[in-house]
Amino acid sequence: MALVEFPDGLIATLIESFMMKTLITASGEEEHTLRIDGELGSLQVDGRRRRISVFSEQARYQVGAAPTAHEVQPAWRDPFESEARHFFSCIQNGVEPITSGRSQRRNLELVLAAYESMASGAPITLR
User: Fold this and answer.
1) What is the pLDDT of residue 91?
2) Is 71 left (phi over 0), alpha (psi -120 to 50) or beta?
3) Do residues 94 and 101 make contact, with C-beta atoms less than 8 angstroms apart?
4) Spatial separation of the C-alpha atoms in residues 90 and 18, rounded to whole Å
5) CA nearest neighbour of 32 among 16, 43, 54
6) pLDDT in tens, 77-91
């Protein structure tokens, strides 16, 4: 878990855990989800149902007078299979991956700063 404050004052809480249990994971199955909450609403990716759900209490996003969750079911592709195919294609064709080591360096800096903050007990500022 990490609390991140951005230069514009936005504060985000990042949580990554294999310990958060649901009925599905208690039965032994993996469950991959992503949820983003903000002042305008939330977006949730449900990997098991293969749906994206968007919710907002804002009047412009409601259907009639009631708050509504809008669901989208995109075409499904196994993300791990797609990643492996892309990786092997890059090796065969000498092409740089969509997410290269250079493009992911900032993400690694954030993770390392979180570890440093845990060890020191102090906030870490990234430039």
Assistant:
1) 93
2) beta
3) no
4) 31
5) 16
6) 877 888 899 999 999
Taking the complete model, does pTM exceed 0.85, yes or no? no
Condensed to tens digits (0 to 9), the pLDDT of residues 96-111 reads 898 888 888 888 998 8
The secondary structure of the chain, three-state, reads CEEEECCCCCEEEECCCCCCCCHHHHCCCCCCEEEEEECCEEEEEECCCCEEEEEECCHHHCECCECEEEEECCCCCCHHHHHHHHHHHHHHHCCCCCCCCCCCHHHHHHHHHHHHHHHHCCCCCCC
